[in-house]
Specification:
InterPro entries: PsdUridine_s_RsuA/RluB/E/F_cat, PsdUridine_synth_cat_dom_sf, PsdUridine_synth_RsuA/RluA, PsdUridine_synth_RsuA/RluB/E/F, PsdUridine_synth_RsuA/RluB_CS, RsuA_PseudoU_synthase, S4_RNA-bd, S4_RNA-bd_sf. By secondary structure, this protein is an alpha+beta fold. The chain is 19% helix and 28% strand. The strands form three sheets. Strands 5, 6, 7, 8, 11, 12, 13, 14 and 15 form a nine-stranded mixed beta sheet that branches. Strands 2-1-3-4 form a four-stranded antiparallel beta sheet, with no helix packed on it. Strand 3 (47-49) and strand 4 form a beta hairpin. Bound molecules: uracil (URA).
Length: 230
């Protein structure tokens, strides 16, 4: 929210008073003096009036998990373990998943409480590639790459998928890079050729690669550099 609105939403300031505090350069956000009324204040921002803390700012949290098979990408499930069950974090109920994976899909899963950050990763408009290693039941044909690059029509959503890049690694293995993350997208793309996906592993989301030191089920906090890469 804009800093002028943040201030005038507090019971003690009206809009005029909020503007004046900014002009007088008495407001700081994360230690930086702010006079621009459009400056963005987030739930993670520390906002002060002179030395007085108006909002302490809650800590932003970012984790990378190696999702194992047999767990659900959801915050709760009546039957199966969820990816959040794998986290030993006291505030895990405030976290959400940036880009779900199917029950038996393995690989990179990013978990955070920062909605703006996760939207940048997952929204098709930012065009960040999601890279999967795919294993199929039948041989991957020579026509797959061009078909995926041209886009496939998904009747349910009434859309054509954005150009995807396929690198064939072996008769039944490939690396597929897609921009959006539609429901069961990879399986449906191979399903167009009646070729069943029997193994699916997400290696990368945008600039972030699954840490090879993480065994399935393990996780770690992202580094500051990794957070800022997105
Ligand atoms: N596409 C799928 O079909 N499944 C996943 O888990 C991820 C992408």
């Amino acid at each position: 929210m804009r800093v002028d609105r943040f201030l005038s939403n507090l019971p003690r300031f009206n809009r005029q008073q909020a503007r004046r505090l900014l002009v007088e350069r008495r407001i700081s956000v994360d230690g930086v003096t702010v006079s621009d009324p459009h400056y963005e204040v987030r739930e993670f921002s520390r906002v002060c009036l002179d030395a007085e803390v108006l909002q302490a700012g809650k800590p932003a949290r970012y984790f990378m998990l190696h999702k194992p098979q047999g767990c659900v990408s959801a915050t709760s499930d009546p039957q199966h373990p969820t990816v959040l069950d794998l986290l030993r974090e006291s505030d895990k109920n405030e976290l959400h998943i940036a880009g779900r994976l199917d029950f038996n899909t393995t690989g990179l899963m990013l978990i955070t409480n920062d909605g703006q950050w996760s939207r940048r990763l997952t929204q098709p408009t930012t065009k960040l590639p999601k890279v999967y290693r795919v294993e199929t039941e039948d041989v991957i044909g020579p026509d797959y790459a061009a078909t995926f690059a041209a886009g496939l029509y998904f009747a349910f959503e009434d859309l054509t998928t954005q150009p995807a890049e396929l690198a064939v690694l072996g008769p039944t293995t490939a690396r597929l890079s897609i921009i959006e993350g539609r429901y069961h997208q990879v399986k449906r793309m191979f399903g167009y050729f009646n070729n069943k996906v029997i193994g699916l592993h997400r290696e990368r989301m945008g600039p972030l690669e699954l840490d090879p030191a993480l065994a399935p089920g393990e996780y770690r906090a992202l580094t500051v550099e990794e957070i800022h890469q997105v």
